[in-house]
Design a protein that fits this description.
InterPro entries: CFAP61, CFAP61_dimer, CFAP61_N, FAD/NAD-bd_sf. With 1205 residues, the protein is α/β, with parallel strands linked by helices. The protein is built from 37 helices and 49 strands. Helices cover 27% and strands 21% of the residues. The strands form eleven sheets. Strands 1-2-3-4-5-7-6 form a seven-stranded mixed beta sheet, with helices on both faces. A seven-stranded mixed beta sheet has the order 8-9-10-12-13-15-14.
């Protein structure tokens, strides 16, 4: 090396391609051929880039699981290599091929050595690296010294055009030498211990390690890793394990309770030694075993299936996540809490030892696995090695080979349990295409799984014809270890790739142009014995190689899905190895107007929504960071769902202990029902399709009970029935709900007025409630009320009273009307109305009031609830009385709906207040969501800011709940995400922490109002001030209105736009009897009017008479594209960038002019325009725009492509 250079190795990104191309020379092409660097990066199993301190690329290497020889089938390279060369030990598990390498000439040897060392450290099972090169080619000084020539197989007599060189692990990253510990190792090991943790020293003294080593006996052994006579790692193992406690706290069914099988079983057979994945235990009720999988095809009657799901969910107060289904033997009993805590009884003798203490120098931690063979050698009669660790300890390299055991529902043990089986030491794991002789072995692997019949049906179809009946290619592979089948995978060719590309953000992970259509596959079944879970990702990697695929897709359909026309799936055991893909927002197209310019049917075809999981070649050797912290979220509000969504969709993180506490269960688990949905307005944060696309039930545990108490000392949340939910971090986002008001108790027979009645001290009614008094706060409430109305109300003659002035009161009236309740049986009673109204628009207020009167709904305004049943609450509600400033009111009724005011739920308040969290009308938080407990965060309408901010009127309720939840999640990700080390969202000083944060996303409401009016409001987050007072402010901007709020079904309806003083859209309000293109119109918020085809100019010239039709024109469809905002950011970056080193950017020129004179003259504007036209930025922006339209042409075919004109 000609000079020293500080370098860092990292995974290659596609943005590195231009810099890598600069390193390519003529010698590179002779050695590796002419290649597409981006394609190499995209298809490599592992691509490594070396950068210097300035982040300049100085070397790059790409490693594949097959050689770069086109004539060799990538699925059969092992036979080819072993036929030609003497390398009997090389196989797909322990080998990779270096298919591309470039480096700066002066640093070639050092770069190659560093990359090779990095690769061996990153892939623990890797032992051999191969370099295949044309015979006679020069591999350069760097690779020449690292790779050695291989000996030919003595039986091979032919000639080869290629030469294969080999690099062994022991030459760069050798296995550690493990020996018994000696007392004199103490001095070598203590610095390592103290660097990582000084707790043991402070508890047991400076010589605790020497004492432990000296106290070794047949039950306690100590091992060290020795490098050149120096101890660099330490492990203490013990054969005394309390399996009974572990069985009480963890679901050890897949591991036979850590015991050997009883005599009488053929323990000599490996197949019997392996524990069945789903073992039925006598403590588990039969009905739990009969539970349908998420991918069952279900019954033909959709209604029956929905009822079954509702009944099942109601019967389960704890719903475990789907991704751990293969690691559970069944659910805890819910009917009897004592039986749920019973320990399953397993036969046999205990067969586990534990790791008591482990420590290793960071330089060698990637070789931690080398301890295990020596550890098992200490106890030859034990089959399982276990390790427990606190939840907040980060998962270290040793645990990547262990299998995490699922805790039981009632476990409060503050430890995670990991298990490693002795069979994992035998690196005998191969994958091959399925054959007829494998059928019995596959049956043995899947026989205890739900959906095993579907798996075997597909296997039989594959063996019979290799294709489905419709001709779709079908492929099946089995995993073997020591000649026994331990896993099976079944995939089909992916036929809906256009739909996936257009509806999911798959391009965040792959470049479609570098993947052939036939390289995409659809995973239907994947089963692997838990003992071999460490090989799960290798199994998937081999499936890709053997099937000649590069991408795998696995959908998860909602439980209510009918799955008509969808081929069967089963819950795969590799869910944790896949990445979750976000769904994309879709444009609502005017298909009839577009005609032949509309997108293809493959994109527009309606499909049942599903959550998509994905794996590609470059993800097969990229491990996820496991986070074991117990994060408990209380409340399934929009804030809580947004928080969980952000955590779940972190592709490089896997949160093992996310729990949601909500009495209603996860939203979106029942089939969408228009009759149910229209009882409540929508915040548009999450739709039914959004919930299906997320499938949160796959990744989080749900406790369907109410929080009753918080034990901050022991970090436990108590829920109904005194069940315990332990936490490490607690997130409170229960929001606010409509509460049943307390009647004033006034006797209307005395003709008393509201002002003369003393207000009740309590604001929330907590007495015995009649069964026909309701408050609707969720879709689950709506579903139960719809059922009650159909069963008990529709056939009667009584009236329904809707009490309140909130928007929910109007949507409930529309819901009653749509169910067939005559308007004459509906009475709307409004308390003294607030200012402003829920619509904050006089035109809409009048239109809805007129609609109610036209329909025949009885309306009373300004009345306060006085009594129910004349204070006799022994039976159902039959009448309600009200007072006002004039005459009192008495209404005979059979149903009463309360929508007076939203407040914090009483039980939530009591739990919060009793735990000494600061509650000042609402739960008090700082600007970073912290309560007065550092382990409890809170957000949403439940909270308010500390008084020191002097922002009493500003709370999270003023903002978009989805944005609040996302920001809360990002503020906590810093605690867990290693890629964010060094970043802190906390204010630097107290002076910097004096302002509340600003949130920018719009507040949105959508509702179906009485008279069939579709209502949409999108506005800037802010204080709820009357519209009239806002419009008189000089900086308000302009109001643009088309249509009338009082319209019939033939007219398009009322459409109001507020354009602020900066000429950007700030408010959108729509009221129409025709459906509104809600998804499209939301995209208008925040756009400058020039984006909208000179909106102001056209409106002033009377060229726009109907905003609905104007925004359905084809020119604006690109604005509604989900990537349009990204395109705007790219244009802004071009305007900010400097054309030359010393030249000013256009943005700087504008800022300079504005600083000199706030209002630009016509001459200044003309000079700016001329400067823009003459600059290279204009051409760059035009090219970027054409590129945007071309790349997204599958969504935007109505635009002319570059080169057509």
């Amino acid at each position: 090396m000609s000079g020293a250079e500080v370098i860092q190795a990292r995974r290659t990104e596609s943005l590195d391609a231009p810099e890598i191309l600069k390193l390519v020379s003529g010698g590179t092409e002779k050695l590796f051929g002419r290649v597409n660097v981006v394609n190499i990066i995209e298809k490599a199993n592992l691509a490594v880039t070396l950068v210097n301190a300035k982040n300049d690329v100085i070397a790059f290497a790409a490693f594949f699981d097959y050689p770069n020889i086109p004539s060799i089938n990538q699925a059969k390279w092992e036979e080819w290599l072993k036929e030609k060369y003497d390398c009997t030990k090389a196989n797909a598990l322990n080998s990779l091929f270096l298919n591309f390498f470039v480096a700066k000439p002066d640093f070639a040897l050092g770069c190659a050595s560093e990359i090779i060392r990095t690769v061996f450290n990153a892939v623990p099972f890797l032992h051999y690296l191969f370099l295949v090169m044309p015979r006679g080619a020069d591999c350069g000084p760097g690779l020449f010294e690292i790779f050695n020539s291989m000996r030919y197989n003595p039986d091979f007599k032919g000639n080869l055009n290629f030469e294969v060189k080999i690099c062994h692990r022991h030459e760069h990253c050798p296995k550690l030498h493990i020996r018994h510990a000696r007392v004199e190792d103490h001095d070598d090991l203590m610095p390592t211990f103290n660097r990582q943790n000084d707790v043991l020293t402070s508890m047991y003294g400076n010589f605790f390690l020497a004492e432990m080593i000296e106290a070794q006996d047949e039950d306690n052994r100590c091992l060290v890793a020795d490098v050149d006579g120096t101890a660099v790692g330490f492990m203490s193992v013990c054969s005394q394990v309390d399996c009974q406690i572990l069985n009480r706290c963890f679901d050890l069914g897949p591991f036979n309770g850590l015991k050997k099988l009883v005599d009488g079983d053929d323990t000599g057979s490996m197949n019997e030694e392996m524990v069945k994945e789903e073992k039925v235990v006598k403590d588990i009720p039969e009905q739990k075993e009969e539970r349908k999988s998420s991918t069952d095809s279900g019954k033909s009657s959709k209604e029956t299936k929905d009822d079954e799901i509702l009944e099942e969910e109601e019967s389960q107060s704890f719903v475990p996540k789907l991704s751990d289904e293969h690691m559970r033997q069944g659910y805890d009993s819910e009917s009897d809490s004592d039986s749920a805590r019973k320990t399953s009884v397993y036969q046999g003798i205990e067969s586990a030892f534990c790791i008591q203490l482990f420590c290793i120098d960071e330089k060698y931690e990637m070789r931690s696995l080398d301890f295990l063979p020596a550890a098992f050698a200490q106890f030859p009669d034990r089959d399982y090695c276990i390790l427990t660790m606190p939840h907040l300890v980060s998962e270290f390299p040793l645990l990547q080979s262990f299998t995490r055991v699922t805790p039981k529902r009632h476990s409060t043990l503050s430890q995670e349990l990991y298990v490693y089986h002795r069979w994992g030491l035998i690196e005998s794991f191969s994958v091959k295409p399925c054959t007829t002789s494998d059928t019995d072995g596959i049956k043995n692997v899947v026989k205890s799984l739900k959906g095993s019949n579907r798996i075997m049906t597909d296997i039989e179809q594959y063996i019979a014809s290799r294709r489905d009946h419709d001709g779709t290619q079908l492929q099946a592979f089995v995993a073997e270890s020591m000649g026994q089948i331990v896993g099976v995978a079944i995939l089909r060719r992916e036929e809906d790739i256009e739909y996936i590309r257009s509806h999911y953000s798959i391009e965040d992970f792959v470049y479609f142009n570098h993947h052939q259509r036939e390289e995409h596959a659809h995973l239907h079944h994947f089963v692997l014995n838990p003992i071999f879970q460490q090989y799960s990702k290798h199994f998937l990697k081999e499936v890709l190689r053997l099937s000649h695929k590069s991408c795998l897709y696995y959908p998860i359909f909602p439980r209510y899905s009918t799955l008509e026309g969808i081929k069967p799936h089963s819950t795969v055991t590799a869910l944790n190895d896949l990445v979750t893909i976000k769904a994309r927002r879709q444009i609502i197209y005017p298909v009839e107007q577009l005609g032949g310019n509309a997108p293809s049917d493959r994109i527009l075809q309606p499909k049942e929504p599903f959550a998509l999981n994905h794996l590609n070649r470059k993800l097969t050797l990229e491990p996820k960071v496991a986070i074991n912290a117990r994060i408990v979220v209380v409340g399934a509000s929009d804030v809580g769902i947004s928080f969980l969504e952000t955590f779940v969709f972190c592709p490089h993180l896997r949160f093992n202990n996310l729990t949601l506490i909500t009495p209603q269960g996860l939203p979106g688990q029942s089939a969408p029902d228009p009759q149910v949905n229209q009882f409540l307005p929508s915040s548009l944060c999450f739709t039914d399709d959004d919930h299906a696309h997320m499938s949160l039930r796959t990744w989080i545990n749900v406790v369907k009970e109410k929080m009753t108490r918080i034990d901050r000392t022991n970090k436990i949340v108590y829920v109904t029935n005194d069940h315990k939910v332990p936490y490490d971090y607690l997130v409170l986002c229960t929001g606010q709900q409509f509460q049943i008001p307390v009647p004033s108790g006034a006797d209307i027979s005395t003709l008393v007025t509201t002002s003369e009645v003393e207000r009740p001290r309590d604001t929330v009614y907590r007495g015995t409630l009649p069964g026909n008094v309701f408050a609707i706060n969720s879709l689950q409430d709506s579903a139960h009320i719809v059922k009650w109305l159909k069963d008990q109300f529709l056939a009667s003659d009584g009236k329904a009273v809707v009490y309140g002035w909130a928007m929910e009161a109007y949507t409930t009236i529309q819901g009653l009307l749509s169910l067939g309740v005559p308007a004459s049986r509906i009475v709307m009673v409004q308390p003294p109305p607030p200012i402003p109204s829920c619509f904050n628009n006089l035109d809409i207020d009048e239109a809805i009031e007129n609609s109610l009167k036209t329909l025949g709904v009885e309306i009373h305004i300004g009345f306060t609830l006085a009594q129910w049943n004349d204070s006799n609450l022994d039976g159902p509600l039959t009448c309600a009385t009200f007072t006002s400033d004039n005459k009192p009111l008495r209404v005979e009724c059979q149903a009463f709906f309360c929508f007076q005011e939203k407040r914090v739920d009483y039980q939530a308040f009591k739990a919060i207040n009793d735990s000494c969290l600061v509650f000042d009308g609402k739960l008090v938080v700082n600007a970073n969501f912290h309560t007065n407990d550092p382990f409890i965060r809170a957000a949403g309408p439940l909270t308010k800011y500390q008084r020191r901010y002097h922002a009493e009127s500003w709370t999270h309720a003023n903002y978009n709940s989805k944005e609040i939840g996302s920001e809360l999640a990002h503020s906590m990700l810093v605690l867990f995400d290693p890629t964010l080390e060094g970043f802190s969202p906390e204010p630097v000083s107290m002076e910097d922490d004096q302002l509340v944060p600003i949130y920018k996303q719009a507040k949105m409401y959508s509702a179906l109002l009485p008279g069939g009016y579709h209502y949409l409001h999108v506005g800037k987050p802010g204080l709820n001030l009357p519209l009239d007072s806002l419009m008189v402010q000089p900086e308000y901007g302009r109001e643009l209105v088309t249509g009338s709020a009082k319209h019939d079904e033939s007219s398009p309806g009322y459409f109001r736009l507020h354009v602020n003083q900066y000429r950007s859209i700030e408010t959108i309000t729509c009221l129409s009897k025709q459906p509104i293109d809600t998804s499209n119109l939301l995209c208008l918020y925040g756009l400058h009017e020039r984006y909208l085809n000179n909106l102001l100019q056209r409106f002033d010239e009377d060229l726009i008479t109907n905003f609905y039709s104007f925004f359905r024109e084809s020119w604006c469809l690109a604005i509604f594209h989900d990537r349009f905002n990204d395109f705007r950011e790219e244009v802004r970056e071009l305007l900010v960038s400097k054309p030359e080193q010393d030249a000013h950017s256009l943005e700087e020129k504008v800022r300079k002019m504005i600083d000199e004179d706030l209002v630009l003259t016509k001459e200044q504007r003309r000079n700016l325009r001329d400067a823009y036209i003459a600059s290279p930025v204009r051409k760059a922006i035009e090219l970027r725009q054409l590129s945007f339209l071309s790349y997204n042409s599958y969504h935007l075919p109505m635009y002319v492509k570059q080169g057509v004109v």
